[in-house]
Design brief:
This protein has seven helices and ten strands. The chain is α/β, with parallel strands linked by helices and 225 residues long. The chain has one domain: Alpha-Beta Complex (Spore Coat Polysaccharide Biosynthesis Protein SpsA, Chain A), CATH 3.90.550.10. The strands form two sheets. Strands 1, 4, 5, 6, 7, 8, 9 and 10 form an eight-stranded mixed β-sheet that branches. Strands 2-3 form a two-stranded antiparallel sheet. Helix 2 packs across helix 4. The longest helix has 15 residues. The protein starts with a strand and ends with a helix.
């Protein structure tokens, strides 16, 4: 894709289940927000961070230029954060993520953006659930859809985009670059953050090379006869 891409990090959630500001929570000495930013930065042309009103972001090293905007409609959830991010974006394409997905992989971001084509959005589907905060969006139609949903009283991200062209991206397109789909693990609670920390000590499954996949397929075929 040759179009410019804005990376949007929604960092202004209420963190009720976590008990404190997730963006500033530490994983291996780095705030969760930095883990996400570092994975996102190589795949995009600019970064927009959406915060809650008055939220203080943690220091991140090295510093990377980012546009910081406040969520215009607190208590309206991720949809309001997305709308604020779309509005601030300078690029025609956006990739949106949350600040609590520290195992996000750059290759996953690139694959999702690369699948956009002529669609208005690409939303991964993992374990039967859509992942709108790990998705690519065309700014103009999706901003219009998000704003219309908010005006109509809607808060659910998925419901906001029912009238735009959304491609549901299956797991098989993503396991090639993230075999155990770690990119979609969120730290919604301290316990989930601890589980994510434990994953860092576990090597990710290797991705089979195309040659190995073909050989495996031939073996399975022979076993059937």
């Amino acid at each position: 894709m040759t179009e410019g891409v804005t990376g949007i990090i929604v960092a202004g959630g209420l963190s009720r289940r976590f008990g404190s500001d997730k963006a500033s929570a530490s994983l291996r000495g780095r705030p969760l927000l930095q883990w996400v930013r570092d994975a996102l930065a190589p795949a995009v042309d600019e970064i927009v961070i959406v915060t809650a009103t008055g939220q203080t972001l943690p220091p991140m090293h090295p510093a990377v230029p980012a546009t910081v905007v406040e969520d215009r409609e607190p208590e309206r959830g991720p949809l309001a954060g997305l709308a604020a991010g779309f509005e601030a974006a300078a690029s025609p394409v956006c990739f949106a993520t949350s600040c609590d997905a520290p195992l996000l992989r750059t290759a996953v971001v690139e694959r999702i953006i690369g699948a956009l084509g002529n669609h208005d959005a690409v939303v991964p589907e993992i374990d039967g659930f859509q992942q709108p905060l790990a998705a690519a969006y065309r700014r103009e139609p999706c901003l219009a859809a998000a704003e219309a949903a908010l005006v109509g009283g809607g808060n659910r991200v998925i419901d906001a985009f029912t009238d735009v062209d959304v491609l549901a991206l299956g797991e098989d397109h993503l396991t090639r670059v993230d075999p155990d789909l770690r990119s979609f693990r969120n730290a919604n609670t301290p316990e989930e953050l601890a589980a994510i920390a434990a994953l860092l000590d576990s090597p990710a499954p290797a991705t089979p090379s195309p040659r190995r996949k073909r050989a495996r397929a031939r073996t399975k075929s022979r076993r059937r006869h």
